[in-house]
Input
Amino acid sequence: MECFYCKGNMKKGTTTYVVNRKGYHLVLDQVPAYVCGQCGEASFEADGVEMIQDIVRDLDMKSEKLVMHAY
Ligand SMILES: [Zn+2]
Output
């Protein structure tokens, strides 16, 4: 797999995925991804992205409830 940015060699590994939303910030360590050995750019796998979106959907719903409780 070739890096989209620098055409470097991408290797399977893990990286940190940061989600910045209104009301919360989520940092997921060790998300499976292809990481460029040259520039460090990460490309996430479809499976991983789907799981993250699932977590974020859940958190969105629950954090909204929590914020509403505060008022
Ligand atoms: Zn690269």
Q: What stands out?
A: The first helix runs from residue 46 to 69. Residues 9 and 37 are 6 Å apart (CA to CA). The two ends are 50 Å apart (CA to CA). The mean pLDDT is 92.
